[in-house]
Amino acid sequence: MTLLTVNYITNNYDYIQVALASMFEKTQSDMIVNVIINGPTDDLRLQNLATEFPQANIIQNDEMLGFVANHNRAMETCTTPYIALLNDDIRFENDALSILTQYLEQREHVGVVGPQLLNDDGTLQVSSYSDPTVWRMAYKISGLAKLTRQDGWLRPILLKLGVGKVFKTDSLQTNHNTREVDIIKGAFMVTRRPAYEQAGMMDDVLTILYGEEIEWHYRMRLHGWVNVLVPQAIVTHFGKGQMSLSMTGKRLFADRNAILNWFLKHGTPQEAKRIRQIIIVSHSIYATFWSAFDQEKSKTHREIVDMAKQFNREPYTVQTSNSATTS
User: Are 259 and 275 in contact (CB under 8 A)?
Assistant: First the structure.
């Protein structure tokens, strides 16, 4: 029986070629592989992927869809017990898919698993996160989080001091053991079908770039499932946008939208109000500052302020009669 469906979204041949070549070289599991070319492209190499990788199903979108829309569509049609939702900017360093699916098979209460991610220089990349809190998000929105970014000089000092354990912040810990975590980084996620059928698909309001897994994995846990980081599975992730916290334009807008969305759905009304105020005040200051130097950046910050003033969601309610079976 085929246990696993693997789903990629791409419009970059150089990335997807490395991802597929390393996956087929390293993976022993029986799998169905879907590669979604996200919208029309003039890159003939993408159109010829089927010849280069006949094991993969190449699906050409007529239009560009978001991360959520593409992966939700794959989950809705999935017939295997497990599905892997993968970025294209990765390289397999071992048989990560077999390791992760075997872990799921042996532990029926686990909903989502992820590997240890590496940077392209072989150093450890943050592979899991803690749930949002008002203070953590205020730290990020204000810009202070750049002081502790993954490639910053201060971060190694904080790791040695054990700050992550003190403040219960998973991204500031160096624990290399298999462990339960709040959020698996969305670059590489393997989930079981009953978990996402019960908790629901990723939030289709968040269709652009960031934050989808944060709310989704929290919702999984509300339904009784556990998320686990399995560092024996090792994958290189070439994306560095979150590493340097250098988000601009649509990426920055999507990130702030995702933060507000999380608190509206899962925070208290007071927390949602505070986050809304923090976004409005911080980005109003940014918009004013950048108006003298860069009109495009100033425009992005004004759009974020407008979003924070207008965006609303209903709180999420769990149907307790459908809780997961734990063991």
Answer: yes
115-137 average pLDDT score: 92
Give tens-digit pLDDT for 160-186: 655 555 455 555 556 578 999 999 999
Q: What is the dihedral of CA 51, 55, 60, 66, to 10 degrees?
A: -140
Domains of the chain: 4-130+173-244 (3.90.550.10), 249-310 (no CATH)
Write the CA distances from 12 to 64, 88, 92, 104, 150, integer angstroms. Answer: 13, 8, 17, 31, 25
pLDDT at 311: 95
Quick one: what percent of the chain has pLDDT higher than 90?
61
pLDDT, position 153 = 54
Output the average pLDDT for the chain: 87
- pLDDT tens string 199-222: 999 988 765 556 789 999 999 999
Q: What does the pLDDT look like over 37-56, one tens digit per residue?
A: 988 888 888 878 989 999 99
Classify each residue of 96-124 as buried b or exposed e, where b means 16 or more C-beta atoms within 10 Å of its C-beta.
bbbbbbbbbeeeeebbbbbbbbbbeeeee
Rounded to 5°, the CA angle 319-320-325 comes to 120
Gyration radius of the chain over CA positions: 20
Taking phi over 0 as left and psi of -120 to 50 as alpha, with beta for the rest, 168 belongs to: left
Burial of 3-29, coded b for 16+ CB within 10 Å and e otherwise, reads: bbbbbbbbbbbebbbbbbebbeebbeb
Predicted local distance difference test score (pLDDT) of residue 162: 56
Q: How far apart are CA 131 and CA 169, in angstroms?
A: 9
Spatial distance between the Cα atoms of 305 and 255, rounded to a whole number of angstroms: 13
